[in-house]
Structure formats: C-alpha cells, structure tokens
Specification:
The protein is α+β, with helices and mostly antiparallel strands. It contains 2 helices and 4 strands, in the order βββαβα. A hairpin with a 5-residue loop joins strand 2 and strand 3.
Length: about 80
C-alpha cells in the first residue's frame, strides 16, 4: 500500500443545495485536512474509484444516509 495515502478517509454527502440529488465526495488525509477539491459522484462505482485512487478501505468511507439512498437508486442497488 502506498503510505502517502495511509489514514485517508472519504466523506460522501448531498451537495449544499437543499433538495438537490447532487452528491459530492471529499477525501481527507490522516490529519482531517481536505485533499484536492470536492468531487461530484452519482454512483457507488464512482465512490469505489475514489477509494482505489486514494487507497481508502471501504470501511473508511462515510456516507450520509440521504447520500446512501441516492447512490443506491442511481446504481440500481440496495445496501444494508
């Protein structure tokens, strides 16, 4: 594993606009500082690509419940 990304996390949440179905993902380093800018995401596959890029374990990705529902609907899946 590339230690440059050790301890990174991802947070997925709805965009700032109330009622919007737009989601953004933000990568944070081990010191909780934002890495790069927010990235728009619409599907679980896009979240997984970010996890791969930054070597983030899926367990370290935080998804707000409203975002989880939107990701499920856009991906045609359901999560427990």
């Amino acid at each position: 594993m590339d230690t440059a990304y050790e301890g990174h996390t991802i947070e997925v949440r709805p965009a700032a606009d109330p009622g919007s179905r737009t989601l953004t993902a933000q990568v944070y380093d081990q010191d909780a500082r934002a890495v790069d800018g927010e990235v728009p995401v619409a599907t679980w596959a896009q979240v997984e690509l970010l996890e791969e890029k930054y070597h983030v374990h899926s367990g370290a990705t935080q998804v707000a419940e409203p975002a989880r529902i939107i990701l499920d609907e856009n991906s045609g899946t359901t999560t427990a």
